[in-house]
Write a structure and sequence with these properties.
Chain lengths: 234, 825
């Protein structure tokens, strides 16, 4: 599904150039649950931004489901992201002035879908995530776990092929974190390819593969045995 | 598309509800900026854009004759024979209509007594205007023939008041100044001619055979000529053609009194001519106020965009295109602008209502001023442009930011370039404000200078008012020596009654009072029986006055005396000249005892008995022209100036009590003497002087208001910018305090930035103002456009207001709790 060849990314600060990704090459197949790990500043989030098509200033080749992303212009990349990718953030990034239902509807509203169809999709996801009762609440009326649940619902409401999660449980306590990771596992079982960035070994064990970055270099690529459902989470 | 717009609108409304402070500030500033524009645009639309209520009104023209003998701004009336010759010269392609006499009448109907404006017109006027009565008929061609003219057409408002809108009014009799008329028609609602008058009636001007042929202005009917522009001809072409024709008419005519110059003006242009200059200046000012409001709101929206960076980034990450993000921002500014527009409309209406007295006094065509589709279209267009300007810049800046940086919290505060943009906007606001303040300052000083001009008369406790007797102008004008002498039957008894009112010191009558330019008569006479060639004879403004006028107005006598009780009809005719006359025609001589001849008989030997001081006549900025006063008590039916007495006289009452309190007694005294007489424009001399400033007072009041508005907007802008900067730097300020920074250094930190901005704003503003005030050169009086005092005061006021606006955020910065500031990060 994803093919990266010699992807590099650097930032210029004055006269110095700092490399955050160095000749990264990797292939991720459809249905995989990949965890990207590494110490702070290793380039994890930079790689996730490249994969999420939020970053345009990288070098190399990026193939997404056979589409050469590196040859697309900004608008085409945005359209591809809109159709195929969902994002989950560590700080949830729910919009404070929108209700739960409206937050979930947000990515659909950018896809020019008829409002009736959108309302149906939002209702389905609310039902699936068992948050129907909370649909009219605002983010500040929810707990952190509930907010992240809404964040994931928002990310998957348009059934993306790829779900990217940046430290999705970083702001949650362990029980909530476990529930979120179970949800990811469930989504993965249903066919969604997931790539998460985490520091947590426990969370990593929910996935099928671990990538490790150090100083921008991909230093480890290891497949994991299928984990049991009792695995803990940070 | 529509769904997304509605969604964005809903979201915006919710956000505005949650940020009432921002919403209130933004809507208030927009309401002020848009309201000022709407107010002036309402005036502009009514006066310049709204077509007059006549068929194809753009082709209606006024034709005036310019006489060398008349003061600037006055035109000679056109006699009927001249009207016909001009019409015929164009081969009948130019329909014409004439308005001859205009008089105030007091008439009685089932609805009671109503004071109406009577216009004596030619029967051709209404067909030329394309106007049809709603009841009855227009005048027939033969109804201008003497003896057939006793028919009348009522204005709709007159009909409503006088006859309670009775549809059976046609054919009923109506007595006007003692003469029986038959009502033959009622004009439609809103129709008036001349335009803008209310409660009118129209009667045919009797036109004799001599009127059709004679060019002797003294003996035949003359009036104002209106015409419809021939098809395919412009005003300029008509002017050229008619000027040629008039030159031939003047050459063929007898005597030298036929004017050779002619002026053709579009009727609407003629009506709105005086309003053009002040309204265009005001529009330039309110345009500046609008620009100031836009700068302010853009600045506010930029600050808001910084606060909403994360939200924009999330939307972007979830698939919102740049256009969609811009759309949301523009919808937000559109909603704010729409709210501002509605509030501005209400504000504009309230301001117009509040200033209605000054507007009515200073501008023409005020009856056409109200909100119509043009004003609404203007508001909508301005609101849309405002929304685009104030929404698009912050939106483009916000949507162009790095999504990943915003999402990962790398950029939690405004970037240096965003701050710079806002600083530039604040400098712009301060600069524009300084320009407005300088403009307002110059106008205030103009009003002061106008008020300080020595008028030559006293304003204190003097009541003035026009008097129109119900004697019938034509009857008085016929020169018959057998007609009753209204001086003795009406004016002298009126003066006796006025004198008897408790508190009245002296009452006097004059055909013209200063600052009341309703009436002008130029006379040409001989001095000491010396025949001068045409054009060299002494020309002066002729006035009739009763004894006591000099005392009533407090005008000093330079030499000799004013009229007194000895100036009776049987005594030698006395005249008084003013100092300007003496200076011009008796340089270095004593004029007392010299002869001023006017016409034949007793007035050919009028003796100059006094020289009265110069006083300002129509306008305080103009030099005084020569004047000759004749004694009212000495004019009689048949004497040259008796017609003036019959047409219009004005009363001046000096009292020991405030003049305004005498209005009712004046009215009562007049009606005791002449029950059907009417008064016009009763006002104190002080009001007459203030009214004579006309558009200057209105412009000064409006500029004062606009300048105060600008000061407020710019102060809010500076305050907002510094408050935002303090909020952004809370952590830094907290850290500095934690590290031991004294209060003084924190205050300096904030105020130094404010000082730089204010200095830039004032420098830029002073430079702009230096050039902008040149536009005001034609509007100001008694002060130099680059008046140093005005500039200095304005700079000081703006600097003080700016300091206050900067001090509050600086105080807040100094009060930052270091523990909380550091914890919040």
């Amino acid at each position: 599904m994803i093919d990266l060849k010699n992807v590099e990314r650097s930032y210029k600060t004055g006269h110095t150039e700092t490399w955050v990704l160095r000749r990264v090459g990797l292939t991720i197949k459809e249905g995989e649950f990949v965890t990207i790990m590494g110490p702070s500043g290793a380039g994890k989030s930079s790689l996730l931004n490249v994969l999420a098509l939020l970053d345009d200033s990288w070098l190399g080749e990026y193939w997404f489901a056979g589409t050469p992303v590196h040859k697309l212009n900004r608008k085409q990349r945005a359209e591809l992201a809109r159709q195929r990718i969902g994002m989950v953030f560590q700080s949830y990034h729910l919009l404070d002035d929108l209700t739960v239902a409206e937050n979930i509807d947000l990515p659909l509203s950018y896809k020019n879908l008829p409002s009736k169809e959108r309302a149906g999709m939002v209702a389905d996801i609310l039902d699936r995530f068992q948050i129907v009762a909370k649909k009219d609440l605002y983010p500040n009326q929810l707990s952190g776990g509930q907010q992240q649940l809404v964040g994931i619902a928002r990310a998957v409401v348009h059934a993306p092929a790829l779900l990217l999660a940046d430290e999705p449980t970083g702001n949650l306590h362990s029980t909530q974190a476990r529930e979120i990771m179970e949800l990811f596992r469930e989504l993965n079982k249903q066919g969604t390819t997931i790539i998460q960035v985490t520091h947590s070994e426990e969370n990593a064990r929910y996935g099928s593969r671990i990538l490790e970055l150090r100083d921008g270099w991909l230093t480890r690529d290891e497949a994991l045995q299928p984990a049991s459902s009792e695995v803990g989470a940070q | 598309m529509l769904t997304s717009i509605l969604q964005d609108a809903r979201y915006t409304l919710r956000q505005l509800r949650r940020a009432p402070g921002f919403a209130f500030t933004a809507i208030s500033v927009l309401a002020l900026g848009l309201g000022a524009n709407i107010a002036v645009f309402t005036l502009l639309s009514g006066i310049f854009l709204r077509p007059l209520p006549y068929a194809d009104s753009g082709r209606l023209v006024s034709i005036q004759l310019e006489s060398a003998n008349m003061p600037a701004g006055f035109y000679a009336s056109v006699n009927y024979a001249n009207m016909l010759q001009l019409r015929d010269a164009l081969g009948g392609r130019m329909p014409i209509g004439g308005v001859f006499d205009s008089a105030m009448d007091s008439i009685v109907g089932p609805g009671g007594r109503v004071q109406v404006q009577q216009q004596n017109i030619s029967a051709s006027l209404f067909p030329m205007l394309g106007a049809q009565p709603i009841l009855g008929r227009a005048f027939r061609a033969g109804e201008n023939d003497p003896g057939r003219e006793h028919v009348v057409i009522l204005g709709e408002d007159t009909w409503r008041r006088l006859y309670n809108a009775d549809p059976a009014v046609i054919g009923k009799p109506l007595t006007i100044k003692g003469v029986a008329y038959t009502i033959v028609g009622v004009m439609p609602r809103g129709f008036s001619f001349p335009f803008g008058e209310v409660e009118q009636i129209w009667t045919p001007q009797p036109l004799t055979a001599a009127d059709h042929t004679s060019m002797d202005n003294d003996r035949v009917a003359s009036g104002e000529l209106y015409a419809r522009l021939p098809q395919g001809m412009t005003v300029t072409q008509l002017q050229a053609d008619l000027t040629r024709v008039q030159a031939i008419i003047a050459k063929q005519g007898t005597g030298d009194s036929i004017p050779t110059h002619l002026l053709v003006t579009g009727y609407q242009d003629q009506l709105n001519h005086e309003a053009r200059k002040p309204l265009l200046l005001l529009y330039a000012v309110v345009f500046g106020i609008w620009a100031l409001a836009c700068l302010n709101i853009t600045s506010l929206m930029l600050a808001r965009a910084v606060a909403r960076m994360r939200e924009q980034a999330v939307r972007s990450a979830l698939g919102a295109s740049r256009i969609r993000l811009v759309q949301q921002s523009v919808i937000e500014s559109l909603i704010l602008s729409a709210c501002g527009g509605v509030a501005g409309l209400l504000l504009a209406q309230a301001s117009i209502k509040l200033l209605w007295h000054q507007i009515k006094g200073a501008l023409p065509m005020t009856s056409a001023i109200h909100v119509d589709w043009r004003v609404v279209a203007g508001i909508v267009a301005l609101t849309l442009v405002t929304a685009l300007i104030t929404g698009i810049v912050p939106a483009l800046r916000a949507s162009g930011r790095s999504v990943q940086s915003a999402l990962h919290g790398v950029t939690t505060t405004a970037s240096a370039s965003q701050n710079r943009t806002r600083e530039v906007l604040v400098v712009g606001q301060l600069a524009l404000t300084l320009v407005f303040l300088v403009g307002a300052g110059l106008f205030l000083r103009t009003i002061d200078a106008l008020r300080a001009v020595p008028l030559g008369f006293s304003q204190q406790n003097v009541l003035t008012g026009g008097v129109i007797l119900n004697a019938g102008v034509r009857q008085l004008n016929n020169g018959s020596s057998t007609a009753p002498n209204i001086v003795h039957t009406a004016y002298m008894p009126l003066l006796d009654r006025l004198q008897a009112i408790p508190g009245v010191k002296v009452a006097a009558l004059s055909s013209v009072l200063p600052m009341r330019a309703e009436f002008a008569v130029k006379i040409s006479g001989e001095l000491d029986h010396k025949k001068e060639p045409a054009g060299k004879a002494p020309v002066a403004n002729g006035r009739l006055a009763s004894a006591g006028l000099a005392d009533a107005l407090g005008i000093p006598m330079e030499r000799g005396r004013f009229f007194n009780a000895d100036d009776t009809p049987s005594a030698p005719v006395a005249v008084v000249i003013n100092k300007a006359f003496a200076d011009k025609y008796f340089p270095g001589q004593d004029p007392i005892g010299h002869i001023y001849s006017m016409g034949k008989g007793r007035f050919a030997d009028a003796r100059i008995v006094g020289v009265i001081g110069n006083m300002k006549q129509y306008d305080v900025t103009q030099a005084t022209a020569p004047e000759v006063y004749f004694c009212l008590a000495q004019v009689e039916p048949g004497t040259p100036l008796y017609g003036i007495a019959g047409a219009f006289m004005q009363v001046a009452i000096r009292a020991a009590v405030p003049a305004g309190t005498l209005r009712a007694q004046f009215d009562r005294a007049l009606h005791e003497v002449a029950p059907d007489a009417t008064t016009t424009g009763v006002k104190t001399m002080h009001e007459a002087v203030e009214d004579s400033f006309g558009s200057e007072t209105l412009t000064a009041h409006l500029l004062e208001g606009f300048a105060a508005l600008a000061l407020m907007i710019a102060s809010v802008g500076l305050y907002g910018l510094l408050s935002f900067a303090v909020a952004q730097r809370t952590r830094e300020i907290g850290l500095r305090i934690a590290l031991g920074a004294p209060l003084q250094s924190i205050l300096t930190l904030v105020l130094r930035r404010a000082f730089i901005l204010v200095a830039c704003g004032l420098t830029l503003g002073a430079t702009l103002a230096w050039f902008a005030v040149r536009l005001a050169r034609g509007y100001i009086f008694g002060v130099q456009v680059h008046d140093a005092l005005t500039f200095a005061i304005v700079v000081a006021v703006l600097a003080a207001a700016s300091f206050l606006a900067a001090w509050l955020p600086a105080r807040r910065a100094a009060a930052v709790d270091p523990m909380r500031a550091l914890r919040s990060e």
